[in-house]
Amino acid sequence: MACLELNSPQIFSTEQSYDGIFNLFTLGNTTAKDFNTQNAPKLHQLTTASIPQPPPLPAATYGAKKYSKHLNGCSFVLHETRKAWDKLFCQGYGADVRILTEDKGIILAHSGILGIASPVLRNMLEQAKIKEGFRKIKVPGVPSEAVREFIRFLYSSCYELDLLKKYVLHLLILSHAFAVPSLKRTCIELVEEEFLTVENVVDVLQLARLCDTPRLSFACTKMIIKYFKTISASDGWKAMKKANPSLEQELLVALVEEDSRKQDRIKRMEERKVYLQLYEAMDALLHICRDGCRTIGPRDKMLKDSETTCKYAACKGLESLVRHFSNCRIRVPGGCAQCKRMWQLLELHSQMCSEPDFCKVPLCRHFKDKMKHLSKKEEHKWKLLVSKVLAAKGTLSSIAARRLLVP
Questions:
Q1: What is the greatest pairwise CA distance in the chain?
Q2: Is this structure's pTM higher than 0.85?
Q3: CATH architecture of the domain with range 78-179
Q4: What is the pLDDT of residues 81-102, one digit of tens each?
């Protein structure tokens, strides 16, 4: 069958009829116009046998979930394709750009690839004049091997690991200057993992600030704070102190802030330790008054073979305090230090107790009634103490206690 030409008048001819296309229900000599509702059941029986079955619905594992594990971290570029791009750069076939390096080296490249890979290089190529079929651009201040490795990465995203390690700082500068973020990330990761030392961390920090790499700057600052005593005596620190005194001031401020945060962490840990001891004392007090600890006797008494040590760590010291409180003749909160401590523990228990009418701890109900006559300031202090004691143990009731403090 011959094909119609695009300019043939038959394509848009009105003389040709297309009615046959729309006669979907033609059965023998009967057309769609003669078809009526009485023939519908018979038509259904005739046509359902010839209708193919629909394809099955896609499975639940079909789609991105099925292939996400396989595609994660994989490259969509074949190895042969990378090799071809790498070969194109090495052989310089059809090159139209000459890159001049610091040591008078010449690297051949292609303007199309350079312009696509780097917007900075594209701008340089647009301004460069064509002479003898080539555009010339200069990359000063960097060894030719580093420039060659940089241009090679623009072609195939490939690099020699030994050369990358050797010129990682040069490549970091080039990737920042010519806006190649993929190479910049690679250089930053390599510097963080293998390159940073006590001797060069100050120099790397200054370079990281120039190349706008906050992640690398943070890693360098963290190392300087950690090994400040050693780094502050290095030659790099002395040179930085003369050339960039403002950076030295920033590092000293960061050191003071880190030391302050460290002291705050130690203080919080000590406070949590005290609150945890108070929580254990409350458990032991309730255990002594409610259950009665049978494994604690005089200090000179040894446990029998059949007896086990009490599971409450604070029970031993607390029971001796209870015995002193019951036999003390002074028994004034301000007169005896041990009695004063016992009064405070009983008062704290009353604040934490939810069943004062049935509690077996002495004076629980008394302190509960006494708290009703406290000032708001004193009441808030006790609630804050209770919330911190509960929070030290990490119980669910500590959340409710802290919520009560929120106005």
A1: 126
A2: no
A3: 2-Layer Sandwich (3.30)
A4: 878 888 888 888 889 999 999 8
